[in-house]
Each structure stands twice: as C-alpha cells, then as structure tokens.
Amino acid sequence: MPFVTTTDGVEIFYKDWGPKDAQPIVFHHGWPLSSDDWDTQMLFFVQNGYRVVAHDRRGHGRSAQVPDGHDMDHYAADAFAVAEALDLWNAVHIGHSTGGGEVARYVAKHGEPAGRVAKAVLVSAVPPIMLKTEAYPGGLPIGAFDGLRQALAASRAQFFLDLPTGPFYGFNRDGVAVQEGVIRNWWRQGMMGSAKAHYEGIKAFSETDQTEDLKAISVPTLVLHGEDDQIVPIDNAARLSVKLLQNGSLKTYPGFSHGMLTINADVLNQDLLAFVQG
User: Fold this and answer.
1) Most CB within 10 Å of its CB: which of 24, 42, 152, 153?
2) Long-range contacts: 41-47, Cβ < 8 Å, 24+?
3) For residues 151-171, b (16+ Cβ closer than 10 Å) or e, as one string?
4) Nearest 5°: phi and psi at 138?
C-alpha cells in the first residue's frame, strides 16, 4: 500500500487517483474516520478529470498507530508531507469537520507559504473553535467533550455505533430514512484506528483556537455547513469562520446534518465542483 513517511517517522497511508498532470483535489477526513469517507467525492472528481488525493490521519485508518502527535500542528505537517511527496501544486484542499481544522492549519502554515494552494473548502468544519471560551462564548462547554471522552473510554465500539446511528447523519430526526450501510461504514472506519489517537483527537478538534489560521488564509475559501448540524453547531462555526477569512464565502443548507457529504452527496458534489471550476 502507498505510504509517505513524515519527518518524525510516521507512515501515512494515502490514495492518489487520476491523471498526475491534472489539478489535484486533496481531501481531509473527519474524526474518527479515514480517507474512505471521501469515496463518493473522490469518484465524482476523478470522473470529472481531476487528480484526487486523500490520506488517513496519523492514528486513523491504515496510517501508523503512533502514540504521539495527535494535534492540529502534526495533522497539518503530515498533510504537507503528503503534498511534498506527491509534488502537489495548485491544489484545492477540502476538509470535513476535524479535517476542516486540518485544512485551515495546513493552508495557513504550510500550503500558502509554499505556494501550493489554489483554493480551500471547509465543510461542517470545527474552526474557529468548538469549546466555549471568553473569546467565543457561543461554544460548547468542556463537559460536552468530557462526555465524548468518557463514552469512548467506556466502550469505543458502542460509542462508534451510537454516534452515526443518531446525530451524526441526523438519523434521529423525524422523517429521515436511516441508512444501515452508512452506519456500518462509519463504525468500520472508526474501529480501524487507534483508541488513543481518537481519545486525544477530541482535544485537538474541540480546544484548538484557529482564529489566526483563518485570518491568515488569503486564497478563495468556501465554507459549507448544514443548518441542522448536531455535532458542530453552525452558529459558532461556519458563521464565525467566514467573517475571519480574507476571501471567504458561506453556503448553508436547511435541514442538512453533519454528515451531509454522505447523505446529500448529490447536492454537495455539484456545489464543490462549481467552486473548484469557478
């Protein structure tokens, strides 16, 4: 299987499909999943002539289950290692949830300074910060994230079944058709990864203040968010992020869930394509 080795010796699994001379679209997955969560988008974009790349975050999927480095700085540095190894230029980076935080840190600290990024997309993304702080009083209390840690430590397998069955895809809403295959695929991806990486990743996605990352990004950046996102509430996320971006635009979706890229791929893929081509 294809791997890139980072500067601190971590093997990162990646997928690289499509013509090597085509514009690359780089996908950054959410917690606690893997690059497999982008299957629908990768197939769609490769069929539209793009080179598509996605990697498994350290400790997730098929990447090495290392004990350390489960934070946004390492996530972004690992993504840069992939971009350098595959010689990716003029790339569009698309991140979902925690992957949106990874994209923000990557573009601000690595991608733009190296001149490798054309555009960015933050989908259902965690920036600027999920945790309630003095600067962001609309965030969630620390108890919400402590609860995630407790549930994961008590029974990761059950927790990783309950989350996609309920709020992640909005399957707990009246009138929403439950998709058993989607739930099982979420569970499968989660259980491939390291419990320690997932446990420590909760702090990374909830407590990392990415205000300065967002302010530093100058490339065109599209922010997409479901208005019924029960995992990353829209008001303290997308609606604040777009105000911090130099060149940002916001599109929201009434009734769409945190997992809208999967459940509503027909809509999201077309909007992503329009932005990439625009």
Assistant:
1) 24
2) 41/94, 41/261, 41/265, 41/268, 41/269, 41/272, 42/15, 42/17, 44/265, 44/269, 44/273, 45/18, 45/272, 45/273, 45/276, 46/17, 46/18
3) ebeeebeebbbebbbebbbbb
4) -85, 0
Q: Cα(144)–Cα(271) distance, rounded to whole angstroms?
A: 32
Q: Which amino acid is at 177?
A: A
Residue 138 and residue 272 in contact, taking contact as beta carbons nearer than 8 Å: no
Q: How far is CA 14 from CA 2, 54, 153, in A?
A: 6, 6, 28
Q: 178: how many CB neighbours lie within 10 A of its CB?
A: 12
Domains along the sequence of the chain with CATH: 3-277 (3.40.50.1820)
How far from the centroid of its chain's Cα atoms is residue 92's Cα?
Answer: 14
The structure tokens listed for 185 are 């695929």
Please tell me the distance from the alpha carbon of residue 115 to that of residue 65, in angstroms, as a whole number: 31
8: tokens are 């601190």
CA distance 70 to 193: 12
Question: What confidence tens digit (pLDDT) does each residue in 119-132 have?
Answer: 999 999 999 999 99
For 212, residues 6+ apart whose C-beta sits below 8 A from its C-beta are 108
- SS3 per-residue string spanning 48-73: CCCEEEEECCCCCCCCCCCCCCCCHH
User: Among candidates 4, 67, 60, 1, which has minimal Cα distance to 29?
Assistant: 60
**Which strand (E) or helix (H) includes residue 159?**
helix 156-165
Task: For residue 250, list its beta bridge partners.
Answer: 223
Closest CA to 24 of 103, 81, 87: 87
Residues 170-194: tens digit of each pLDDT: 999 999 999 999 999 999 999 999 9
CA distances from 129 to 142, 207, 238, 266 (A): 12, 6, 10, 29
pTM of the model: 0.98
